[in-house]
């Protein structure tokens, strides 16, 4: 019986390299799985697939194990079974004040904006609005047609925070949806965009495209300059002071105090389950979530500013009750604890569905 010829040393080396490559590729796939992200904003770093979902739908996907992370700017309903979530602020976005006043470059401050939105000021040429305009700009004698969404959204939540901080609204109005003073109450961003076709319309909008011909107001900065919307935290702390970010998930964002800062901004939060051992998940996926969240919040995007390093929360996830080690766990922060909660919200803003 004849023997098969032995492969040459070169062939053996090639076969060995191919086997090693296959092992390394398999290990890489195990260590860095592609994450599943859902929510109201697409991520701006690699490593994840994305599906646009309302906050309520994103919460259901997250809690059922169909998603790893929900990216949202308004609070989620609590997870079932007493489980806890970890909410990490990953980006700052500017809230735009959109209006339909052809030929007018509108200028406002936060207090006057709040009074327009709640119906206290009902006509565009009201003295307090006219007084804020540039020389030579005359506002029309049109009614202010406020369009306020009935579905919870980050823009409404950010505006409510700013109006409460300014003392223009009571704290009871700190919600992710409000309709007081509104002429229109659409149930989605798309329906609100149609309202902006009407002369005199006014709405607050988060990131995304605006209808053609819609103006975007300049707002008065802390040092009295009228500035366009810019995604930035706009907060300058003092040595020894706590972080400029909320101490609890979806808590109150402090007023902008940096010179030239745009005063109306919100936070995008990444929400995941604090203990990642559920639904057949692996520890490798849990570690990938922890690393990916750190990458996301450190990166800038055209519509989202990353979180400055001194303001970053520790990202503390567990797997089966055991703390995960690795990057982003011990970042310097003004907080002594991570943003763990049995409920992603703080009880002041309802979920969207």
Task: Summarize the model shown.
With about 350 residues, this protein is of the alpha/beta class. Helix content is about 20%, strand content about 15%.
List keywords for this structure.
alpha/beta, 353 residues, 7 helices, single chain, 6-stranded mixed sheet, D-Maltodextrin-Binding Protein, domain 2, disordered C terminus, 2 domains
CATH architecture of the largest domain: 3-Layer(aba) Sandwich
Q: Which oligomerization state do the chains in this entry correspond to?
A: single chain
The main β sheet shows up as: 6 strands, mixed
Q: State the strand order across the main sheet.
A: 2-1-3-12-4-15
C-alpha geometry = elongated
CATH class of the largest domain: Alpha Beta
What does this structure look like?
This protein is of the alpha/beta class and 353 residues long. It folds into two domains: 31-91 and 266-341, 3-Layer(aba) Sandwich (D-Maltodextrin-Binding Protein, domain 2), CATH 3.40.190; 96-228, D-Maltodextrin-Binding Protein, domain 2. 22% of the residues lie in helices and 17% in strands. It has helices spanning 9-31, 55-63, 110-117, 127-130, 154-165, 189-195, 283-298, and strands at residues 35-39, 48-52, 69-72, 85-94, 96-99, 107-108, 145-146, 201-205, 215-216, 218-220, 226-227, 265-273, 318-319, 322-323, 340-341. The strands form four sheets. Strands 2-1-3-12-4-15 form a six-stranded mixed beta sheet. A four-stranded mixed beta sheet has the order 7-8-5-9. Residues 22-30 and 331-353 have low confidence and may be disordered.
């Amino acid at each position: 019986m004849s023997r098969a010829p032995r492969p040459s040393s070169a062939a053996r080396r090639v076969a060995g390299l191919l086997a090693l490559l296959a092992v390394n590729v398999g290990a890489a796939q195990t260590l860095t799985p592609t994450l599943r992200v859902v929510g109201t904003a697409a991520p701006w770093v690699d490593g994840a697939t994305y599906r646009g979902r309302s906050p309520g739908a994103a919460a259901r996907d997250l809690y059922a194990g169909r998603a790893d992370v929900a990216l949202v700017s308004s609070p989620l309903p609590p997870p079932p079974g007493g489980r806890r979530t970890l909410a990490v602020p990953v980006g700052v976005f500017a809230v735009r004040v959109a209006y339909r006043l052809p030929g007018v470059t509108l200028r406002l401050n936060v207090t006057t904006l709040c009074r327009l939105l709640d119906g206290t000021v009902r006509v565009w040429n009201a003295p307090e609005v006219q007084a804020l305009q540039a020389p030579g700009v005359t506002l029309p004698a049109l009614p202010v047609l406020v369009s306020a969404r009935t579905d919870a959204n980050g823009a409404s939540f950010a505006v409510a925070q700013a109006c409460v901080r300014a003392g223009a609204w009571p704290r009871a109005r700190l919600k992710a949806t409000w309709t007081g003073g509104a002429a229109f109450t659409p149930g989605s961003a798309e329906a609100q965009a149609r309202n902006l076709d009407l002369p005199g319309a006014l709405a607050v909008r988060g990131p995304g495209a605006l209808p053609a011909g819609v103006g975007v107001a300049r707002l008065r900065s802390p040092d009295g300059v009228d500035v366009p919307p810019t995604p930035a935290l706009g907060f300058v702390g003092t040595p020894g002071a706590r972080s400029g970010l909320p101490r609890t998930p979806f808590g109150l964002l402090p007023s902008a105090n940096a010179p030239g800062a745009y005063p109306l901004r919100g936070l995008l939060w990444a929400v995941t389950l604090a203990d990642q051992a559920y639904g057949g998940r692996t520890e490798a996926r849990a570690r990938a979530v922890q690393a990916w969240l750190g990458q996301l919040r450190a990166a800038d995007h055209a519509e989202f500013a990353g979180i400055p390093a001194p303001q970053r929360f520790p990202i503390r996830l567990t797997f089966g009750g055991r703390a995960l080690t690795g990057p982003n766990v011990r970042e310097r922060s003004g907080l002594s604890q991570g943003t763990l909660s049995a409920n992603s919200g703080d009880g002041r803003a309802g979920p969207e569905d």
